[in-house]
Design goal:
about 500 residues, alpha/beta, Nitrilase/N-carbamoyl-D-aminoacid amidohydrolase, 2 domains, six-stranded mixed β-sheet, 12 strands
Length: about 500
């Protein structure tokens, strides 16, 4: 079945399979099969394609639901399947719109497919809190020459290019069917489409070559990362808390011998509420004063002291201590994980408990604040915030030097989830032309330069300390300045074509 075949091929283009060239042809069987289909059958074909595609790239969600949520394995798979079914609705709509216009108009798939695809991919990134995972452009993270234009268009421009290639190949195949139905069909439109795509592709590669070989001077900053590899199931046990703290202190004492400007610990690395647990907080500050370097760490913090008998409001935060142990910056996570850190629409989902159990409900931050240090300015993105290009861009629309993201991917075990999460950070570096440092509890941690080149990455479930000098990039990209203009143009073009 073409829809199944396309879904499998597209899955293979993502980590950890990493057969990224497959994405350039994976949609062809699916798109060609839509010729002549009635809207209802086209919608079903899109759903089937989407289920295989999205389940193949997001199956790993079951691990956190089953292993840490206490939900039976089969039920956890059904929950993931339900999510994939929702995501597949977008591809169902794509199939309906594409099948209607490719048959009723002379417009080529080269134009129809990418503008409709990008419009729906963009909508999926924001609808119902948004879930932009598995955007087709992310499959191309190893193709550095081909993805540099993300600093102009964002990730959606790369998706456009990949789908365009599928559209050109589909046009070649469909042109025979068009000519059979309409003997006077202008074949030159197909030839012009092929020429236009080849020109666009070569132009994109030329831009990539220029960007990758462009000299952009900048100061260097030495940054150390600590991957504690803390067992998620024990982390918050009272008997294990001191062991967690000793682990991070011991690893940090080792790494400061390399004289870094800053040491970074991962998301919620502290097994206590910083600032609320006074004794442990003071102990950490005393330890920090011995290091002679900055320390950035993730911690759960209490927003306001709770009233008696009520649970506290919690913040998922990043805190920066200077060489003297003073708090010079703190950031509270803005985009929380639904059903992980809070329950959306409680009046509807009143029966659902949070997957990540805690002493209270997490509340979002509301400040797009950057840290200012003697060695540069940076924003900190916690967990899956890094997958939202629009959110990251807001921190760098007026400048900045580098990006930090801290996370705890222990929830996803040894699945493809952590690797996909890391690969998506490549695009945030390119889009904003900033080097990026990623620190994860169990991996994948690493360094990415402002061209998206992976300088170093750690394996999963190992205790690691690393130090790397990153070169700051103070240039402001078109995407940082103006945002998703390319996506808006695609949406406007799709509306004109359809209406």
């Amino acid at each position: 079945m073409p829809s199944v075949f396309s879904g499998v091929l597209l899955t293979l283009s993502f980590p950890t399979f990493n057969f990224s060239p497959l994405a350039w042809v994976a949609l062809v069987p699916f798109m060609v099969s839509l010729w002549g289909k009635e809207p209802s059958k086209a919608f079903i074909a899109g759903l089937v394609f989407g289920v295989f595609y999205f389940f193949g790239t997001t199956y790993w969600i079951y691990h956190s639901i089953s292993h840490y949520g206490g939900i039976p394995f089969i039920v956890s798979l059904l929950i993931v399947f339900s999510l994939c079914l929702y995501l597949s609705l977008y591809l169902g709509f794509f199939a309906v719109l594409f099948s209607l216009k490719i048959r009723s108009s002379k417009l080529p798939a080269l134009l129809l497919a990418p503008v409709i695809w990008v419009s729906l991919e963009y909508a999926r990134s924001y609808a119902f809190t948004g879930f932009p995972w598995s955007s087709i452009g992310y499959s191309q993270y190893p193709f550095l020459y081909g993805i540099q234009s993300a600093d102009l268009t964002g990730i959606y421009g790369i998706s456009f290019l990949v789908v365009s290639c599928n559209g050109v190949i589909s046009d070649i195949i469909i042109s025979r069917k068009r000519f059979a139905e309409i003997p006077l069909f202008p074949v030159r439109l197909t030839h012009m489409g092929i020429a236009a795509f080849l020109f666009l592709f070569l132009l994109n590669l030329s831009y990539g070559y220029w960007r990758l070989h462009q000299y952009r001077p900048g100061n260097t900053v030495k940054v150390s990362i600590v991957q504690g590899n803390i067992d998620q199931s024990k982390k918050w046990e009272p008997s294990y808390q001191e062991e967690v703290i000793r682990t991070y202190k011991g690893l940090t004492r080792q790494i400061v011998t390399s004289s870094p400007h800053m040491v970074i610990w991962p998301e919620t690395s502290l097994p206590f509420f910083f600032g609320y647990d006074t004794i442990r907080s003071q102990d950490l500050v005393a330890f920090q004063r011995q290091l002679n370097t900055y320390l950035l760490f993730g911690s759960v913090m209490v927003k306001n002291p709770p009233e008696k008998g009520t649970p506290p409001q919690l913040l998922n935060s990043a805190v920066l201590l200077d060489r003297n142990g003073n708090i010079t910056y703190s950031y509270n996570k803005i985009h929380l994980v639904p059903f992980g850190e809070y329950v959306p629409l409680k009046s509807i989902f009143f029966f659902v408990e949070k997957l990540v159990s805690g002493a209270g409900e997490f509340v979002p931050g509301d400040s797009f604040v950057r840290a200012h240090t003697p060695f540069g300015t940076f924003g900190t993105f916690i967990c899956y915030e890094i997958i939202f290009p629009g959110l990251v861009r807001k921190f760098y629309s007026k400048g900045g030097d580098f990006i930090i993201t801290i996370t705890n991917d222990a929830w996803f075990g040894e699945t493809s989830g952590p690797y996909q999460h890391f690969s998506m950070a490549v695009f945030r570096a390119i889009e904003n032309r900033k080097p990026l440092v990623r620190v994860a509890n169990t991996g994948v941690s690493g360094y990415i330069d402002s061209n998206g080149r992976i300088l170093k990455m750690t394996p999963l479930f190992t205790q690691r300390i690393e130090t790397e000098e990153i070169t700051l990039d103070r240039s402001r990209s078109i995407y940082s300045k103006f945002g998703d203009i390319f996506s808006y143009l695609c949406i406007a073009t799709a509306l004109i074509v359809l209406i």
